[in-house]
Each structure stands twice: as C-alpha cells, then as structure tokens.
Amino acid sequence: MIKFISFVASSPDVKNGGSFLLSWNVTGAESLTLQSSDGSAGSPTDIAPPSQPFVKPSLTVSPIAFDRVVTYTLKATDSDGTVATESVKVNVGAAKPVPAVRRIYTAAGLPPGMVMSQDGLLSGTPTVPGKYVIDVKMIDSDGNTLESKTELVVNPAGGTLTMSPATLPPAVQGVPVSIKFDTEAK
Q1: Which of 40, 121, 163, 172 is 20 to 30 A (C-alpha) from 26?
Q2: CA 91 to CA 66: how far, in whole Å?
Q3: pTM above 0.70, yes or no
Q4: Domains in the chain, CATH or no CATH each
C-alpha cells in the first residue's frame, strides 16, 4: 500500500531563474516519477525497499517557465501496479496577491440570547441574569489558533432598584411602629 508521508517544496515562491528543493517521503512504492507542468522535473530513480520510507531530500529543480504557477506531481507505483499521486504548486516569479488572513471566531458559555458571529461580533439580548465565563476561540486561515476566557455579568432587568420610603418618619418611645418597605425598578 502506497503512503505519501510528505511531498513539499522548500519554498512556495521562487524568483524567475531561481531553483528550489523538492523533498518527499513515500512508503510502499516500487517506482517514482516526477512530472511538472513546465517540463522541468526529472525522474527520480533511487528507490528503497517497499517496506522502507523513500526519502530523496536533495532534488533541486530549476523551473523553465516564468511568471506562472508550476505544478509538480509525484507518481508512485507499487508492485501490484497501483498508482498514487501527490502534487505541490510553486509560484515561479509571478506576482501574486497576498491573501488576507481569514479569522473565524467561536464562543462557548454565552448567556442565553447571545451569539458570537464567525467574524467575532458578540451580540444579542441576554435573557438570564448571572455571571458567565465565555471561552472565545479564533482560528485563522493559516491554521493559527488563539483562545481566551473572559467574564460577562448580566444584571437583572429594570436598571436601578430604589427602596421606599427613602426616609423614615420619627418614632415615639413606647408607641408601636409598622413600616412596609418596597422596592421599585427604574
């Protein structure tokens, strides 16, 4: 059974007229061939026994096409004739836009009624008062991750509570007193 453990270029970007290193690690292959979309790849011939990994870390490639993306395809064939391929692309001298890093946010532990959008906006109307520990996670398009815990306190509805009466009438010694206190939300 053929298994590609790795197939990488030492750099995804190469200057026109430059060169780079292709390396791979494949198990279970009886033969390997390397092809490129610009015809610059050779044919590797060093093969280890099928049970051993085949590593050729020193194939230097000099692309013959300029200002384009060149695809290098490694083709592995086992003793039964089964073929497997793996490809890597290299930008040769072509100006390419730098892609914006995309970040995706998630949150756990939010109060009921609140949501976190994928672009990191926490919004909604909390429906249950309390103290919430929110676990916010971010992953970007490069595979980097970040996690942070923060606390959100949701106060009861109604704003400020006031107690009445605000002042008590004077009491007289020996005379019973009965005053009912009440609260009001404003």
Answers
A1: 40
A2: 9
A3: no
A4: 3-92 (2.60.40.2470), 103-154 (2.60.40.10)
